[in-house]
Design brief:
heterodimer, A: alpha/beta, 14 helices, B: 146 residues, mainly beta, OB fold (Dihydrolipoamide Acetyltransferase, E2P), 2 domains, 3-stranded antiparallel β-sheet, 1 helix, binds zinc ion
């Protein structure tokens, strides 16, 4: 396997983007990503586009976006891995370069989720768990899926609704500092607890918003990095992938995601790092409970200790491992095909120490960052480790 | 934000014909008040929901096994914000229970006040024919099904 680096990143504003269609939204992140890398669309031989679709009008978004961005003629692949779609697109482009098939690839993550009404979006997401056994008769929603984990987790370990709220408070604090975030405002524990119930015990502020957004990165082989004289390449040190059952009742327990445990162990092994070496992480906080389980699944702490990390501020910017200091899915927003790419954009900037405003810059000791991107409720998991 | 101009796309209504030939006994069983799982004759793995092919040992030689329905709640949630096709329903409780036979099941939990639901509560999974003739299954508190 050859080494692969991130040499250009781009990120749209996340939010309710009724001002753009899916092509125009993708363009907003493709342009800066190519410009940073000093490339034109003609230089790109291979494009992977992550988008789940169904909430917007184009059934073949890779074709539509490539055409709009002047990329027609490049090898094109559209990728789906539910909410981990962006990471799957990164993984696909990574393997294409690592294997020697191409020297350059562009990864585009884009989602336009707000062209349908909220209840239709809730339906389309809910159907994506296990349609036949959990949606047809039972109408299980995605907040519902994570609520089942939250109930089991709190019952088992004694975590409280206030502990869950602390995750939202932390991530909103950083979201308020991120000009690209959907929800740029601080909230209190009381705001979370008094927000309306979506799927008990999860309330509105335990849930990420429904988001439009795009993020893009350019990946290159080591040879190409030298040829293009890239100053600060950020290397993909390892990616771990795994999966879980679609039907929730086939799982062993509801206190953590096996797919995340497996994916992270693989990523740590390939990258040759331990959790203690990570300077900053982005984890999949689609719901507050998901962030607590992520700490444990990733080995940041032992099983059942995740809620103590957030209570003690260990995942704040000057804590043991800063987590989601861009606002996370919770406040930055979660355009599901773009999220995994957005994590790599954020962590690349963190590793280059060029986060703006600098109050959001995590201190770098080892120049190692980790992205944890979950599709569904651990239906898919991708863990990507970056090094400068 | 909603004042920005948009073009309303053409409308498309979709529903799927989902084949149930291989699990017909399960769906017919619900009409007779029975809950069936399948058990692999080769490796012995019990499945609920039922399957026609064993993903463990790849045998397609399965037995139908009637389940007692007796179980204990492992976790639950109340779905308040409902999908568009469930808008005509009142909020509902979804639970996962460990059944006596070793498999788990996910279904609505009915006939109980929200405040009385606890992890560890004894329940029974029962078949149900809905008003429109469709079949389902749901959990009820064990003491109400004796
Ligand atoms: Zn078998």
């Amino acid at each position: 396997m050859r080494r692969v680096a991130v040499i250009g990143v781009g990120h749209s504003k996340f939010g309710d983007r009724q001002d753009v269609n899916v092509r125009e939204l993708a363009f907003e992140s493709v342009k800066p990503a190519l410009e940073e890398a000093g490339l034109t669309p003609r230089d790109i031989p291979y494009v992977t586009l992550g988008s789940v679709g169904v909430w917007y009008e184009e059934p073949l978004p890779a074709v539509a976006v490539a055409e709009y961005c002047g990329l027609t003629g490049a090898g094109l692949m559209r990728v789906e891995a539910a909410c981990a779609t962006g990471s799957a697109a990164v993984h696909s482009a990574y393997t294409a370069i690592a294997s020697g098939y191409v020297d350059l690839a562009l990864v585009i993550g884009v989602e336009k989720m707000r062209e349908v009404d909220t209840f239709t979006a809730v339906e389309l997401m809910g159907r994506a768990g296990s349609y036949l056994w959990e949606f047809e008769n039972f109408g299980l929603t995605f907040p519902g899926y994570y609520a089942l984990y939250a109930t089991a987790y709190m019952n088992r370990f004694g975590a409280t609704e206030e502990d869950l709220a602390l995750v939202a408070v932390k991530n909103h604090k950083y979201g308020a500092m991120n000009p690209l975030a959907q929800l740029q405002r601080e909230i209190t524990v009381e705001d979370v607890l008094s927000s309306y119930v979506v799927a008990w015990p999860l309330k509105l502020y335990d849930c990420c918003p429904i988001t439009d957004g795009s993020a893009s990165i350019v990946l290159a082989s080591e040879e190409k990095v030298r040829e293009l004289k890239i100053d600060t390449p950020v290397w993909i040190a390892g990616i771990g992938v795994s999966s879980g059952t679609g039907t929730l009742s086939y799982r062993d327990d509801f206190i953590g995601l096996d797919a995340a445990v497996k994916a992270s162990r693989t990523a740590y092994k390939i990258a040759g790092v331990e959790p203690g070496k990570i300077d900053v992480a982005n984890v999949h906080d689609c719901f507050t409970i998901a962030e607590l389980m992520a700490y444990e699944d990733l080995g940041f702490c032992s099983r059942g200790e995740g809620f103590k990390m957030v209570r003690e501020g260990q995942t704040e910017i000057y804590g043991k491992i800063p987590v989601n200091v861009d606002g996370g899915l919770k406040a930055k927003g979660h355009p599901i095909g773009a999220t995994g790419v957005s994590m790599i954009v954020e962590l690349t900037k963190q590793l280059r120490e060029e986060v703006t405003p600098s109050s959001r810059q995590a201190p770098m000791k080892n120049y190692v960052a980790l992205a944890h991107n979950v599709g569904g409720t651990g239906h898919y998991c991708y863990v990507t480790i970056l090094k400068r | 934000m909603s004042e920005l101009p948009t073009l309303r796309s053409r409308k498309l209504e979709i529903s799927y014909n989902i084949p149930i030939s291989k699990t017909k006994k399960f769906w017919d069983g619900l009409r007779e008040g029975k809950i069936y799982g399948t058990k692999c004759r080769k490796c012995g793995r019990l499945y609920f929901p039922p399957v026609a092919d064993c993903g463990e040992c790849y045998s397609s030689d399965m037995d139908w096994v009637e389940l007692s329905g007796e179980g204990e709640i492992i976790t639950f949630t109340h779905i308040i914000v409902r999908p568009v096709s469930f808008q005509d329903q009142q909020p509902y409780t979804v639970a996962i229970a460990q059944l006596r036979e070793g498999v788990k099941a996910l279904a609505w939990l009915t006939d109980v006040k929200r405040k009385d639901i606890k992890v560890g509560m004894k329940v029974r999974l029962v078949a149900k024919v809905m008003e429109d003739g469709r079949v389902t299954y749901e959990f009820k508190p064990a003491e109400k099904t004796e």
